Amino acid sequence: MSVAALALSDDGNVEKSLYSLLDPGVDPGPTHVHGLTAEMLDGQPTFGDIVDDLLELLRGRTLVAHNVGFDYGFLAAEAELVEAALPIESVMCTVELARRLDLGTENLRLETLAGHWGITQMKPHDALDDAMVLAQILKPVLARARERSAWLPVRSVTRRTWPNGRVTHDQLRPLKVLAARMPCPYANPGRFVAGRPLVQGMRVALAAEVSHTHEELIERILHAGLAYTDAVDPHTSLVVCDHISTDQGKGYQASELGVPVVPGAEFIRSLDSVIGGAAIDEFVDPAARDDQLALF
């Protein structure tokens, strides 16, 4: 196995770099993919040997990777094994970012994006070459994102500190899963009414038939103080859907329940004028709150 990391300046130039082959102490896996054999890795540094240099490079930066969930999970697991803590507060996935830009490519693999932007990839699946290619792709991708007013998929990472002081990193679970369980600080004001603004606390479901990615829409929903729901029920305020299927999907479910359906472009525009909602605490009588607390 190998590891490579590049620290970029604000203008996208490489400030620091780290690259090393690593001796995993086990079979290196699919040699036909990465080209690394057990003989090549025998005697190379271990992750523990290079972890201090890696942590110094990562400190105070956003971790950017192509499928960042995989890379973050690998780094977090290796760091825990050597009792180190990743100094990473946020991550960004370039697969998700490219998905938001509607590039028209056959797929979103790194080599495909490199070809799309005219960037030469010398050794696919080599850690250093992949990192260098990604650094070159990042400039035009960020420029395209600014042109399209696309939100960057930057996510905060979470970690737990146990009583013994040990720090563990939670895996980057899909945003849809986290958002569906996330309590909204505002009370649900009910159904959306066409012609009126959105109100914080409204419960929003997303149909499959939308032009923006679900991740971007969920980020915008949460940022606006709305609640994301993965189900359509009588408490749903609206469903974002561009084309309602005649017999299935969330758009169809909404029409059956009388839940308003809003096209994606209209919903995005309406997020600029969301009005304040009522905090849930305002709906709890102080005396009732005392009674509830006395039960515990």
UniProtKB/TrEMBL annotation:
Keywords on record: Exonuclease, Hydrolase, Nuclease, Nucleotidyltransferase, Transferase
All copies of domain Exonuclease, residue ranges: 1-147
Xref: Gene3D superfamilies: BRCT domain (3.40.50.10190), Ribonuclease H-like superfamily/Ribonuclease H (3.30.420.10)
GO biological process: DNA replication
Keyword Nuclease applies: yes
Short name of one Pfam family: RNase_T
Enzyme class at the top of the EC tree: transferase
GO cellular component: cytosol
Protein name: DNA polymerase III subunit epsilon
Organism whose genome encodes this protein: Mycolicibacterium vanbaalenii
